[in-house]
Design brief:
By secondary structure, this protein is α/β, with parallel strands linked by helices. The chain has 17 helices and eight strands. The protein has an eight-stranded mixed beta barrel with strand order 1-2-3-4-5-6-7-8, surrounded by five helices. Pfam families: EAL, HDOD.
């Protein structure tokens, strides 16, 4: 079974919810050769078995419903303020469906029309919809200006799907779109002038380089950290959190208490947070999810000796977007193993299948995810379990350093 989530942002690039996408792992290109009813049932069951908060945190879930499953009581297992009911674009519309939609709305649930391609003025379900989702690949912005204006006059919330560039995001925002879905926030803005973060980057690189040595020195690490009061403060906070309030008398004590593996994990996380201050928090969260997920995938591939490198590769996979540079420029000067450089820059090498699989899973490209997982002899059910673990771990880390 595959279940992934895709963030949905407001116009400030703050996450307001996640669309949950499902596939069981069989051969069909769309859901899985079974009905969309069974697909939705599996998503809802997965939410309860895995824990709602683990998957969508304190946000709301956007879940697909067809004209059959909308009539079950399953959707009412989720509170109205946590669920957006997405009606699929190919639903069969009849009086039974419209009556049910009225009932669902009266219970407080919001309804979204998914992949909307119909005429706004003529489509029968418009009056029941709170949110209208336009796929920008299927319906380019220029082709829907009039309909979008009508929807806004009727106080509908308009959501742009498959927004892949900042330019698309800005154009959609200017047109009046309020919600956005896509991976535009993961792309570097290379053409724009970014803030010089070279000084901070150098400090982090020095620590990472020391940690990569066969015998890292706590004395050298202490010296580097003590040169940066902000970094020192954040290390002390991290250790104090773990020690449960016990006193920490020095930076060296703090570093020793954490241990080399924990230091490396935290320095990578702090690097992403500090360098990405002007970026959406979701970008950092994705890097953490990728870090954990990549390590798990490497382990299942029989690359136990490379799980640490796979984790670092996943963590650094958004560094180009954080620094607004090409990946090659972003990684320049960092002493990294060739396996990481090859995967992130050249898209080849022993860790590249790990990178490919976690990206396919993240974007719910189920065909690619299934193909790669089969080639790597990885059970998709294990992938889903590891993905949930990665989500929980990322949420915990963000909470601790928030």
């Amino acid at each position: 079974m595959f279940i992934a989530r895709q963030p949905i942002f407001n116009n400030k690039i703050e996450v307001i919810g996640y669309e949950l996408l499902y596939r069981s792992g069989s051969q069909s290109k769309e859901y899985d050769g079974i009905s969309s009813e069974a697909s939705t049932a599996s998503v809802i069951n997965g939410l309860f078995e895995s824990g709602l908060d683990s998957i969508i945190e304190d946000k709301c879930a956007f879940i697909n419903f067809d004209e059959k499953f909308i009539h079950t009581d399953a959707l009412e297992l989720i509170d109205p303020d946590r669920l957006i009911v997405e009606m699929l674009e190919d639903v069969i519309i009849d009086a039974l469906l419209t009556d049910r939609l009225k009932e669902v709305r009266n219970k407080g649930y919001r309804i979204a029309l998914d992949d909307f391609r119909e005429s706004y003025s003529d489509y029968p379900l418009i009056e029941y919809a709170d949110i209208i989702k336009y796929d920008l690949m299927a319906t380019p912005l220029k082709s829907i200006v009039k309909d979008v204006n009508k929807a806004l006059l009727n106080n509908k919330i308009i959501l742009a799907e498959k927004v892949e560039t900042e330019e698309e995001f800005l154009k959609a925002k200017e047109m009046g779109f309020q919600l956005f879905q896509g991976y535009f926030f993961c792309k570097p803005h290379i053409a724009s002038k970014s803030i010089d973060k070279s000084a901070s980057k150098v400090q982090y690189i020095r620590i990472i380089a020391e940690l990569k040595k066969k015998e890292p020195s706590f004395e050298i690490l202490t010296g580097i950290v003590e040169q940066d009061v902000t970094l020192a403060y954040r290390f002390l906070r991290a250790v104090s959190f773990r020690k449960g309030g016990n006193l920490v008398y020095s930076i060296k004590t703090a570093l020793t208490y954490m241990g080399l593996n924990e230091i490396e994990r935290w320095i990578n996380i702090l690097m992403l947070q500090d360098l990405g201050q002007s970026k959406p928090e979701e970008l950092m969260k994705i890097s953490l999810i990728r870090s954990s997920f990549s390590a798990s995938i490497a382990g299942h591939m029989g690359l136990e000796s490379l799980t640490h490198e796979a984790s670092l590769m996943g963590l650094l996979s958004v560094l180009d977007a954080i620094l607004d540079q090409t990946m090659e420029a972003a990684l320049e000067g960092i002493a990294l193993p060739n396996s990481i450089l090859e995967a992130l820059i050249d898209h080849k090498g022993v860790l590249f299948p790990v990178y490919e699989l976690q990206i396919a899973y993240e974007k719910a490209d189920w065909q690619a995810a299934e193909k790669i997982s089969k080639e790597l002899n990885i059970d998709e059910n294990i992938l889903f379990e590891d993905y949930l673990i990665a989500l929980e771990w990322a949420n915990d880390i963000v909470a601790q350093i928030g």
